[in-house]
Write a structure and sequence with these properties.
Two copies of one chain form a homodimer.
Chain A (H helix, E strand, L loop, with lengths): L1 H6 L2 H17 L1 E2 L6 E2 L5 H4 L7 E5 L2 H10 L5 E4 L18 H8 L5 E4 L5 H14 L5 E4 L15 H9 L2 E2 L2
Parallel strand pairs in A: 3-4, 3-5, 5-6
Antiparallel strand pairs in A: 1-2
Chain lengths: 172, 172
């Protein structure tokens, strides 16, 4: 980045500096889903085109970008802004889930898709969410664990390959 | 390997050369599953501990090693020794499936788990197998496609993440 700044015209440097300051001034968490937004409510929560009774729960706003890029999802999101992490002393009670629980409790949500990372912290977070949300009338799903597309069986780690075998899908 | 050979004692070089010759002489495809074997029938096919009515179909013997390492499978294998590959001019009719089809047709097999690679050639091969085998009374499964364990959502390719969303698993 330093080399890039040294190379661009002074006008662009000023513009860049101004924009960097603006980022923190004008971009705040969406009051509904915690995604980054320039408005009180983000464009995804406000969109009339999204299904309003499905919520995909992610750890960070960048996960929303990754899921949007798939083009396979047209529901809403809820961003935890973190995950349970025993290593960092963050437990379930520290998680930002109050707004989510309130919406699920109100009965307006039919389906929750837990899309926390498939690592230890993400799995702990998923288990905590399942425990908190399964008392309400809502269907809870987890992203499929399995072998990723475009790879070869021999290079897949044993834990994932074992899970892909256990979760094998009927095709006939 | 050249550096290793230059360094070891002459006796070990002779031993290595002899073993390399033996590999092709004594190791042949198992007459049942095509896995490498020193006997007419490999130790997996011969084992009384394996379930005899489940067959996991793989492309190469090294895939058998990968699946055995998971410790999650106790059925038999069938090795295609290749896959359909339009780029290399290999189509379904070139595939080594006659012994497999015969066993499925005999009614002795309850379940087939197609474990070809999750890439283009492996997918074509899987579709061909499904078409050939679904005329018989056998349950056919495919390894689960999804996000691999230990990764993070933001680094998973869109195609895999999209498939993991579509194949989401109910947890409540």
């Amino acid at each position: 980045m330093a080399f890039y700044i040294l190379k661009i015209p002074p006008k662009e440097v000023e513009e860049l500096a101004r924009r960097i300051e603006e980022v923190q001034k004008f971009i705040k968490p969406c009051s509904l889903c915690n995604n980054f937004s320039t408005e009180e409510i983000c464009s995804l929560c406000a969109s009339p085109k999204r299904e309003k009774d499905v919520i995909c729960v992610v750890e960070e706003p960048k996960d929303i970008l990754a899921i949007e890029k798939t083009g396979q999802y047209d529901g809403l999101y809820y961003c935890l802004l973190g995950s349970i992490s025993p290593m960092e002393g963050i437990d379930g009670e520290d998680l930002n889930i109050h707004k989510l629980v309130k919406r699920v409790a109100s009965g307006e949500i039919k389906e929750i898709i837990i899309s926390t990372d498939p690592d230890n912290d993400g799995e702990l977070t998923a288990q905590f969410l399942i425990q908190k949300l399964s008392v309400y009338k809502v269907k809870i799903y987890r992203l499929a664990i399995g072998i990723p597309l475009g790879t070869q069986i021999e290079y897949i780690d044993s834990a994932t390959l074992g899970k892909a075998l256990m979760d094998r899908k009927p095709v006939s």
